[in-house]
Every structure is written in C-alpha cells, then in structure tokens.
Design goal:
The chain contains 8 helices and 7 strands. The protein is of the alpha+beta class. It folds into 2 domains: 141 residues, no CATH class; 169 residues, START domain (Alpha-D-Glucose-1,6-Bisphosphate, Chain A, domain 4), CATH 3.30.530. A 7-stranded antiparallel sheet has the order 1-7-6-5-4-3-2, covered by helices on one side. A hairpin with a 5-residue loop joins strand 6 and strand 7. The radius of gyration is 25 Å and the shape is elongated.
Length: 336
C-alpha cells in the first residue's frame, strides 16, 4: 500500500502547480541556456546544422531534468509530472524556434521528436536516480543543475571531431499501364503541373516542402540541362549524364545558380555542408504483362554526427517527393 500524501504539503498534480517563483526561475535559466547553446553552435559551424549529440540529445535531457528538479525539490511529485515536463518545454522550444529564431518548420519538425525523447529520458532518469539515492525530505542528494555543464563540455570536443559522412540512395517505383512511348517524354520533363496532380503526402502537404511546377529539358542527350521550377520560387538545374531513349535518363544536380530556398532555413539547403543532393534519374523497365515499371532514384550524402537519424528524414522527404513525381507521370501517361 502507498502511504497517504502529507496533508500539509501534498504533491502538486500538474507540473505548473506549486511555486510560481521556482518555475519562473527555472524556465528563465533554461531559456537563457538553450539560446546560449544555439548561438554557440551557430557561431562555431553556422551552416552545418544542429545534428550534434550535445545539442540534439544532451541539451534537452539536461534542460528538462533541471526544470523538473526545480519544480520538485522535495521529490513529492508523481511519475506523470516527470512525463509532462518535456512536453511543455517542447512546446516552448517550438514557439521560440519559429517566432524568435526564425527557424523553418521543416527543421523544427525534424528536431522535435529527438528533442522530446531526449528530454523525457532526462526527466525519467532524474526520477530514477532520486529514488535510488533516497532523495526527499528536504535533503536532496542528486542535483540537476550540476549536469547543465555537460553539453557545454561535450560540444567543443564534438565540434573538432571529423564529421562522419554517409552516402544514401532513396528510390521509389510505380507501375504504369501505358507504353514506353507515352512515358519517355514525361521522363524528360513536364509542364504546367497542377496543385491537384500527384500524390498527397506528409512532406509536401503537412511539413510544407514545395511541390513541382514544371521540369523543362533544354537540349537532347548527354550534356542537356533539365531546369526545375517548384513552388515558393525554388528553381535548380540538372545536367544530363545518362541518356538511353525510351529507357533511362540520369543527371547530376547543379545548385550553383539555384534560388528560392528562403522558404526554409540555411541548414536544409540541398548543397549545404551537412547535406548534398548529388545525382538522380529515371529508369523504365518493361514488365511481362505489357506494363512498365518506372523508378526514380536520388543519391545524396549526409555529413552530421547523427547520420542515422538524419537519413530517416531523408528517406521520408525525398521518398515523398519522388512518389509525388512518379504518380504525376503515371496519371498523365495513363490519360487520367
């Protein structure tokens, strides 16, 4: 049986209950600390993104543990309190990132899951350590403020380490009930793509990545250029380096004279220090039943300290974009 809570000092039911001064002080310290870490990362590597272990994993863990500790100095609160603290701090992080730091919604979406999981891990670990240490009764043995220095100690070390790099291919396919002669011109380029064409997906309909408007081929064969124009003024070029009429067209991306990337932040530019989209192309394979399999691939390289996590988003975003383009070609080739 659990012991009844003290009548004179009951455990607050919600994380915002209790001493307003303690909470205000903790949140101000957390805000100042978080902004300092943000500015430090931006100063050291301004175009490399924020996929550092110290920034994306350690910082939310220690911030949430700190605020949870300050809000429960005598260790009287229930597990629900330690689970809710990261959620409310995440909401604050999102609001500040969008309104004050002017980060793009895509970057915030990418960081939010790992931020929350790390913050929740920090508060649950704090609770476990306090139980193990017999914390409570006004004489705490585990002090969360001491761990605030951990990210600041780890980040300078992490910043001078070589950044690992990983090459990845994202590939999607679609089956088209049409002859190759109807598909090949669409592989070379498409004009006047309407908003209702293609496929509904998370990346473009929820996260806000732009949709294609047209792809225009200038020239024929190897050396020709495909000019791509997307929503929000995004435009870029692709230089054809593989050409097999009716079968395959491939290209290398050229972002040297591209534009329109202001819709997002600098860390998601396709030719940034931490991510470079390199090559792509369509391949058409005939099937035994007379239909055609059209495959679109995109090759890119990721350079972050959290490549495995970053590539999950690369698979989602580039996969959604590819599936949308393939569906548009399918519908046009089949006369829909």
């Amino acid at each position: 049986m659990t012991e009844p809570e003290s009548a004179e000092d009951p455990a607050p039911k919600y994380p915002w209950a209790g001493s307003g001064r303690r909470w205000a002080s903790a949140l101000l310290v957390a805000l100042a600390y978080g902004l300092a870490c943000y500015l430090l990362v931006d100063l050291v590597r301004p175009a490399s993104g924020y996929f550092y272990v110290s920034f994306a994993i350690l910082q939310p863990a220690v911030l949430c543990a700190f605020v949870a500790f300050v809000g429960d100095p005598k260790f009287r609160r229930k597990r629900r309190y330690y689970e809710l603290v990261p959620f409310f701090l995440l909401l604050g992080m999102i609001a500040i990132s969008l309104t004050v730091l002017r980060e793009g919604i895509v970057c915030v979406i990418m960081l939010a899951p790992i931020w929350y999981v790390s913050g929740l891990t920090g508060t649950i670990l704090l609770e476990w350590l306090r139980k193990r240490a017999g914390d409570g009764g006004g004489h705490p043995r585990v002090y969360a403020p001491g761990i605030l220095a951990l990210p600041l100690v780890i980040f300078p070390i992490e910043a001078i380490l070589p950044v690992p790099q990983a090459h990845q291919r994202v590939e999607r396919s679609v089956i088209i009930d049409a002859p190759a002669e109807a598909i090949w011109p669409l592989m070379q380029g498409m004009r006047d793509i309407q908003p209702d064409e293609g496929k509904t997906n998370f990346s473009q309909d929820i996260a806000g990545l732009p949709r294609p408007l047209e792809a225009r081929l200038e020239g024929r064969g190897v050396g020709a250029r495909r000019e791509g124009y997307w929503e929000n003024g995004v435009h870029f070029a692709e230089v054809v380096d593989r050409w097999s009429p009716g079968r395959e067209i491939g290209w290398t991306f050229d972002f040297s004279d591209s534009g329109g990337w202001e819709f997002t932040d600098v860390h998601l530019h396709p030719a940034s220090d931490h991510m470079q989209i390199l090559r792509g192309g369509y391949r058409l394979d005939p099937l035994a039943d007379g239909r055609q399999r059209l495959t679109l691939h995109t090759d890119y390289v990721a350079r972050t300290h959290l490549n495995a996590y970053a590539m999950l988003w690369g698979e989602l975003f580039l996969g959604d974009i590819s599936a949308n383009l393939l569906t548009t070609i399918k519908d046009r080739a089949e006369g829909r």
